[in-house]
Amino acid sequence: MSKFKKKANTKQEIPTSALPDIIFMLLFFFMVTTVMREVTVNVKQRIPEATQLRKLQRKSLVSYIYIGEPKKAGEFGTEPKIQINDAFADPKDIIQWVNEQKDELDENERDQLTIAMKVDEEAKRGLVSDVELELRRANARKLLYTTIQRTED
Amino acid sequence: MAKRQRDEPQINSSSMADIAFLLLIFFLVTTTIANDRGLSLQLPPNPDDIVDVDIKIPERNLFKILVNSSDKLLVEGEPLEDVTKIREMIKEFVLNNGRDPKSSDSPKDAIVSFKTDRGTSQDMFISVLDQVQAAYYDMYAERIGVTNEQWREIANDLSDPENKRLYDKGRGLKNGQLEFPMNISIAEPSKTSN
């Protein structure tokens, strides 16, 4: 009987050498599809949902305005505020900011500057329209309200 | 000569996975998925540059949408509960072509007037604007025989000449004038305290 004794030389371990490769693949996927946060958003952002979304083609022409309730309510209160770059701003600062953004673009692309407004769904229309009025004064008339795709039900 | 079995040399690579995971989690936390989608809009010119000319727009060419500070809708003078009904109402209004004397003369003259209150929430504003744009995109898409979604894809990429041609056809561009413009007038919000 000993003639057929099993040789116990098969390894019991599961080979894990492919695991790092799989994770690296995931890592590269995320590195490619995402962008680094350029500004710290200091306002709450619950982006409203919509169905008729359009996509922006050229990111270099886009500048962002954030509107919403400050995250640090104790310090800044609960009234929605406008955030441009890293700081809170008043509507009157917008013209100057738009001009700075335009200066960074080439001469022939300046009129194509698009302002993407990331507005919290709870924010009031009054504040948003004040911003719009300043944008009209600054002649930055291409606007995009950032929204999330509504899942059709 | 007896062949001696040698152990294969191995480097323990199990911690490599941990290191990669750490990197992965770092990138997940510090990055945002690029979200550059939304409702696009062209703002009217600087109010200071507009010469005040009284243009009389016949009542029949205006489709009025009002939203008050408690997000209640008033469409064409009637209260409306369901926002999604606006889509069909606008299509009917714009494509009237002078049949119903209470509705628009032609798509070119039709204007959707959308007025909110300063207290209206952005959420409500977006849902109404979404419906208005949906109605127009539907009509454009129908004119060139594509779906609403395909139309938006076409409109997103106008650098392609074929897309540009379809886009102009859908909007009825003739001699530099649009036969089928998307006239959405967003009035400045009224100032009621709330």
Lay out the secondary structure:
The complex is a heterodimer of chains A (153) and B (194).
Chain A: H1 19-33, E1 34-36, E2 49-50, E3 54-55, E4 62-68, H2 73-76, E5 81-84, E6 87-89, H3 94-103, E7 114-119, H4 125-137, E8 142-146, E9 148-149
Parallel strand pairs in A: 2-9, 4-7, 7-8
Antiparallel strand pairs in A: 4-5, 5-6
Chain B: H1 14-30, E1 31-33, E2 37-42, E3 62-67, E4 73-75, E5 78-80, H2 85-94, E6 111-117, H3 122-143, H4 148-156, H5 161-171, E7 173-174, E8 177-178, E9 184-190
Parallel strand pairs in B: 3-6, 6-9
Antiparallel strand pairs in B: 3-4, 4-5, 7-8
Helix pairs in contact in B: 2-3, 3-4, 3-5
What does this structure look like?
The complex is a heterodimer of chains A (153) and B (194). By secondary structure, chain A is of the alpha/beta class. In chain A, 27% of the residues lie in helices and 22% in strands. In chain A, the strands form two sheets. Chain A has a five-stranded mixed β-sheet, covered by helices on one side. A two-stranded parallel sheet of chain A has the order 2-9. Chain A is elongated and about 95 Å long. With 194 residues, chain B is α/β, with parallel strands linked by helices. Chain B is built from five helices and nine strands, in the order αβββββαβαααβββ. The longest helix of chain B has 22 residues. Chain B is elongated, with a radius of gyration of 27 Å. Classes of the chains: A alpha/beta (153), B alpha/beta (194). Chains A and B meet through α1, β1, β2, β3 and α4 of A and α1, β1, β2, α3 and α4 of B.
Which sequence of strands runs across the widest sheet of chain A?
Answer: 6-5-4-7-8
Strand order of the largest sheet of chain B: 5-4-3-6-9
What is the average of the pLDDT values of chain B?
Answer: 82
Contiguous helical run count of chain B: 5
Distance between the termini of chain B: 98 Å
The unreliable regions of chain B are none
* DSSP helical segment count of chain A: 4
The biggest beta sheet of chain B is recorded as: 5 strands, mixed
H and E string of chain A: HEEEEHEEHEHEE
The tally of beta strands of chain B, per DSSP, is 9
Described by strand count, sense and barrel closure, the largest sheet of chain A is:
5 strands, mixed
